[in-house]
Each structure stands twice: as structure tokens, then as C-alpha cells.
Amino acid sequence: MASLGARVSLRYRIPDGLNDVVGHLEATDPVVMVRTKSGEVVEIDPADVVSVRELSHTPVRNSEIRALEHAAALAWPGTEQHWCDGWLLRAAHGHTSRANSAVPLLFSSSAQSLPEIIDWYAARDLEPWLALPERLLPIKAPGIKANRVLVGDLSPADPGAATLTSAPSPEWLRIYERDVPVDVLTAVLDGTVTFAELPGAATGDVLAVGRGAVTTAPDGVRWLGVSCVRVAESARRTGLARAICAALQSWGADQGATRAYVQVLDDNTAALELYRTLGFRLHHRHRYVRADSLVPHA
């Protein structure tokens, strides 16, 4: 079941079949309550619920998905880029999915470009992954790494005790733990990037880190992308992830960003709950599909 307050599409049993309702989830126990756009509250026995799908918190146009994805691609572009018929192809020697995938950013993007995309990645000895936001292309393959793109408004905030630098320090990399080269982490197109680290009060050792990148979407919205938020295992559930996010949001507001986004895997319930409490709400979904799985004899 989605969290309270989420906008959902819910299917449930009725005496003569099935029914659907779209609205905001107000309760799940002892009955499920969904408030529709008209204000009607539909009450449903939990045993009658067949499926629940969380929707964007407010209706989102395809153009808004495309604009946000454009800003996000600029914020994580890899170390090499190439435009192909409306697709932005990114490569970074195989480090991270976002930096090694092709994303459809223009209306001209279509599946007809897949053979050329496959060849471009093959020339770099990389798998031809497509980063597919929902609704932008009629590709039905389920893919992998299904995630949610969450968004929230930005306002000036207290950065706290976090240190912000233009490149990750050795301590930042130690807490981050992933083997991602610095040139991949610092890459950004037409924007700016920062790396936040937060020391523990007792020892002064770095215990939490995060990355922020500010880029501008084609519709003029200036976005802060929050990523790479990690907390040392010994210091988890102590508020440090929240503090890192606050520092990045403060920095983003100073850079002129008015909105923020974060990509979270569907099964990362702890992160989804954290960002929900920080005011982030679902904007759209995103997944990765291999281009050569869609082209016969590729």
C-alpha cells in the first residue's frame, strides 16, 4: 500500500466485478479511504483491494517529464556525450547506469534510432542501455532498476555544519563506498556541482556525504539534483542524511534553483520515506532497458 497522502489509482472488488478510483489515500486501516478530485471519499474494505499504483502527486504533463529529465541528464552526463536524433547518449567507462545510458530528451526521439545507439555503445565496449522515463516512448519492456523521480520545492535553509567542496575529498569517497571515478562524479553540463560532507560531533570524522548539481531545464526551471547520499553504517538513523539533504538544498537555493529532484529505487523504502518527510513527492517513474533486446538480430 502507498503511504498516506499519496495520490493513487486503486482497483477494488465490487459485487458485480471490479471498480477503479483515483485520488489521495487518506487511510488504510480499518478501512481504505481515498478522496477523489471532487472531494468524495470512497471507503473500501482492505480485503477487496486488488491493486494500488502510486501516481504523481499532481497531474504531470509529458513535457514536464521531458524537461526535468533534460535537467537531470545535464547533471549526470558521464564523461562523453553524443546527440542522436533527439537522444542524449552518455558514456563513462561503465561507471553507473545514469552515466552510461541513452535518454530520449527531444520530441524527435524514437525507436528508429536504436541501431545507431547500439553501434555507438558497441564502439566503446559498453552495453547499450536506454534510460526510459515513463510515457515518453511506447516501449513496453519492463527493464531493470525501476525507480521513482521525486520532486519538491526549494527555499533557503540552514546549511548546518556541512562542508561543501567542488570535488569529493578522500573522506567523501570513503563514505560513498562506490568505485566511481572522480571525473564521473564531477561531470556536469551547463551547470554547477558540489559535494557535501558532515563530520560527527564526537570525533570530527566524516560520517555522511551527498552530491548536489544545479542545472536548468529547457522550460527555464532551475533544478537541484540530490544524489550519492550516504551515511556511515555506525551513524545511520541519527538524522545525518536529513542534515546532508538540508545542506544541499541550502546550496541549491543559493545557486538559484527553485525545485529539487531525487531518483530513488522502488525497493529502497528507507530512502523513499526520508524524502517523503522532506516534502518530496512522486513526479514520474524511470527504468533501464537494453536497446539490443528491442532490435531483432542486434
From TrEMBL:
Keyword Transferase: yes
Pfam families referenced in this protein's UniProt entry, alphabetically: Rv0428c_C (PF24553), SH3_Rv0428c (PF24551)
N-acetyltransferase domain boundaries: 159-298
PROSITE patterns assigned to the protein according to its UniProt record, in alphabetical order: GNAT
Keywords: Transferase
SUPFAM superfamilies for this protein: Acyl-CoA N-acyltransferases (Nat)
GO molecular function: acyltransferase activity, transferring groups other than amino-acyl groups
Name of the protein: N-acetyltransferase
